[in-house]
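Figure 2 data, in text form.
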Amino acid sequence: NDLRQGQAVTAFFTNQGWRDVLGYHDLPDITPHQAGRQLVAIAAQHDYTLFEHYYTDICGHHQDWQQALNALETFDAFFGGVLDSLTDNMLVIVTSDHGNIEDLSVHGHTLNPVPTLAVGAQRDALAARIGDLTHITPAIVDIGKPF
């Protein structure tokens, strides 16, 4: 029901997977850009919002260059919608606990360092606190406290 009412966003952004694979044919068809804007609208109603996007991980495991390229282009359109909708008081953090789509010659997860992207309010103070993945949670917890 949340998807039908625009109060949720799927990991595939457009709802197509839910329609085609899971049989929810009445879900609206939205663009990745619209999904990004929708996620920001949902986040604006809360103090903290976590969105897990795992499709790039799936694509890395499949080792399919075209599938990976399509996933990254779709994510780019989604993230454009997020950036277009951010308000001055919002902070977006994009990171991962592992890599794999960056090296399709590896079937599993890579050991490559994973960058963290911070956009919006307090991004510089947050970025200064993050040296590796173990710093993400403490930095998020401290967002409401003075840096």
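Caption note: The mean pLDDT is 92.
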